[in-house]
Amino acid sequence: QLQLVESGGGLVQPGKSLRLSCTATGFAEWTLDYYAVGWFRQAPGKEREGISCISSSGTIPDYLDSVKGRFTISRDNAEKSVYLEMNSLKPEDTGNYYCARAVYGFCEHNWAQVRAYESWGQGTQVTVSS
């Protein structure tokens, strides 16, 4: 069974950077190559929101408007990993960040919705504060 493990979260000051990793483990880890992967975040008291999605081939990623130009999603299928580079972090970026395996190999029109994904990691906490 495919499992996703997030890492790289932490406490950072506004304007700083973090790089999150999402690594596939388990019996079916190789299957991550065939699926799009999304990153979500959830702040306390708020719904989980989609931040970015990358297709199985790594082309034409999608981004939430508020992170465009600051966040970059990438993947390394040989490493069974998807990354989220976050620059110029703001306090409103604070939340628990999750990666998830999409239903298909491409990012659907509803890529920012939870229902477009089937497998989820446990999350990694990102706190942006001075």
Report on this model:
With about 130 residues, this protein is mainly β. About 0% of the residues lie in helices and about 45% in strands. It contains no helices and 11 strands. The chain has strands spanning about 5, 10, 20-25, 35-40, 50-55, 60-65, 70-75, 80-85, 95-100, 115-120, 125-130.
Summary?
The chain is 0% helix and 45% strand.
Please supply descriptive tags for the structure shown above.
4-stranded antiparallel beta sheet, 7-stranded mixed beta sheet, mainly beta, 130 residues, 11 strands
Helix and strand composition category:
mainly beta
The rounded Rg comes to 14 Å
List the uncertain runs.
none
Mean pLDDT: 94
- H and E order: EEEEEEEEEEE
Shape type: globular
**What separation lies between the terminal Cα atoms?**
40 Å
Task: Give helix % range.
Answer: under 10%
Largest sheet: 7 strands, mixed
Regarding quaternary structure, what we see is: single chain
Beta fraction: over 45%
How many DSSP helices?
0
E-strand count: 11
